[in-house]
Amino acid sequence: MNQPVCFVHIPKTAGTTFNFILSREYASGVRIEVPSNELSLVPSFLARTPKEQISKASLIRGHFGYGVHQLVEGGVRYLTFLRDPANRLKSYIYHMRHEAEVHHDKGGWWYESARKRTPLKDYASEFQDKCIDNDQVRRVAGIDFDFGKCNQAILDIAKSNLDNKFTAFGLLERFDESLIAMSHVLRWSKTPRYYVVKRRNRRLATEPLSSQDIECIDRLTIYDQLLYDHAKLLFEESTSTINHLAAKTFALKTQNTLTAPGLKIAHQTWRHFRSS
């Protein structure tokens, strides 16, 4: 029975770059892109997807959470990337500001709050954007809890899923080591080659956040931080069995430094012709 790789793409964890790698590795198979960022809408999307297409899929990916295996006969092999929670939330804020600047003509609360530099506390209380509220726990646990309602029980489920239900996971802060580990577990046929697909405006990324915003980030990521601390220990344990990990990581970094410019040109050219 075919078991497709299922990439749980948590926003702002280098998922776009990782998706580039997955596209190369699973280029010959059927790939299913789940378009919605709402966990509750994923079942209905997959229910509308022809069963024959799902049965032939080698890769299912999108901004969803654990639980897709219940909709795929034969199950799936889960992958995800985690990130230091405070850095992830800061990146999300800068992402909002970047998008608001690029799409300066677009309205709506998301863009307007970014343009006005709405304090994170006010943004959180007014709009209750789930992406900023322990979203790594939400997606790994597969439980779409209401804003501000994460708890120890949900964290325990997320930890258990990461321990027992995910075939592999990576840490953004140790991206290359993560690729080596995933390649080892999944027996990838290709050496992971990549360039950083998204580089946001560096000027925006250096804008200081207020002390109130920093305090709010700490409050919004309490359970994410506990999951991330657990993941770091698990990562150390799982990678300790890989022979010559440091040397392999150094070789991968070196090779990608040399090949990244060419990959970027080739990828952008392909995207241009695909969209034209």
Mean pLDDT: 87
Number of domains: 1
- Report how far apart the termini are: 38 Å
Number of helical regions:
13
List the strand order in the largest sheet: 2-3-1-4-5
Largest sheet: 5 strands, parallel
Would you count the extended β strands for me?
A: 5
The percent range for helix content is 40-55%
Q: Estimate the strand proportion.
A: 5-15%
Task: Estimate the global geometry from the Cα principal axes.
Answer: globular
CATH fold field value: Rossmann fold
Q: What is the structural class? A: alpha/beta
Main features:
single chain; about 280 residues; alpha/beta; Rossmann fold; transmembrane; P-loop_NTPase; glycoprotein; Golvesin-related_Golgi; signal-anchor
Question: What does this entry show, briefly?
Answer:
The protein is an alpha/beta fold and 276 residues long.
Notes on the protein architecture:
The protein has 276 residues and is α/β, with parallel strands linked by helices. The chain has one domain (5-275): Rossmann fold (3-Layer(aba) Sandwich), CATH 3.40.50.300. It is built from 13 helices and five strands. Strands 2-3-1-4-5 form a five-stranded parallel β-sheet, sandwiched between helices. α8 runs parallel beside α12 (222-239). The longest helix has 31 residues, at 245-275. The chain starts with a strand and ends with a helix. The model has no long low-confidence stretch (mean pLDDT 87). It comes from Allorhodopirellula heiligendammensis.
